Amino acid sequence: MATPLAYTARYTHSVEAVRAAFSDEQYWKARIEEVGGPGARLDSFVLDGDQVRVQLVQAIPADQLPPAITAVRPGDLVIPRVESYQGTTGTVEAHVDGAPAKVTATATLAADGTGSTATVSGTIEVKIPLFGGKIEAAISEHLLELLNNEAAFTEEWLANH
Question: From first to last of its 161 residues, what are the pLDDT tens digits of the chain?
Fold first, then answer.
């Protein structure tokens, strides 16, 4: 059974400002460098009208993983990720190289007073008998921390650009 993913970020900037950042390749390069972790990289950025598609690769070092994960999948977790946005909605897809683990989510930007809110809703699924739930919980913990760091980076980026 998949583990639900729910995250909300609040920005002091408008939906249009957040969306403009998402449409800026320099934003993505700076974000992956700042909060992407060891070996993180931006593989591609495509802007076509109001559509944005970004391919990133991130990793979680083995020494930061619980034993339940390293027992089943030794080494660092390499996580390719694709984010696609059109207007105020988007999708996020990620998987773990060499493991039956995936994350799928939708993202929605909405006005919130003078600022905006980004809501991420999805699932984390690891198809490994007995250990899947524990691994999903560990991925959820790391993913929520990453989303929080990305939101903080975005708020800072918006304040400085």
Answer: 799 999 999 999 999 999 999 999 999 999 999 998 888 999 999 999 999 999 999 988 888 877 877 777 788 888 999 999 999 999 999 998 888 889 999 999 999 999 999 999 999 999 988 778 888 888 898 889 999 999 999 999 999 99
d(CA 27, CA 42): 11
Q: What interhelical angle do 25-35 and 132-160 show, nearest 10? A: 130
Please give the CATH topology (third level) of the domain spanning 3-160: Alpha-D-Glucose-1,6-Bisphosphate; Chain A, domain 4 (3.30.530)
The residue type found at 157 is: W
Beta bridge mates, 22: none
